Amino acid sequence: xxxxxxxxxxLNISIEKVCFIIVKARExxxxxxxxxxxxxxxxxxxxxxxxxxxxxxxPAVDELRTAINxxxxxxxxxLIALAWLGRGDFDKAEWKEARALAVERHRHRSAAYxxxxxxxxxxxxxxxxxxxxxxxxxxxxxx
Length: 143
Fold this sequence. Notes:
mainly alpha, 7 helices, about 55% helix, single chain
């Protein structure tokens, strides 16, 4: 029996872009409320916990928002549909329906919508997996 294409689903967004967004989403998801609202000037004094604390000027938030906002409409629709697939709202056979709903609901607030998902990175990774894709090849260059 011949092997099927990775997913039988061709994405409008590159796997590399999705993987980058997964990394940024996980950095964003790892954030916690600040212990002290105005951190000291010396990170060593605080055990460098500011890296994990969620401040308004946090670069992780800006990087994730910029990455999502930099996508074209088709890429954004695929990203939303991947998140829904990974969350279990749709399965592989319903990919076209997921995309159609994402097209219907896609507005210019996609970054806020996606960033509001508490486990966005996990959902996107699972969505890729359901379609037969993986970030394994892209993570090597980033670690």
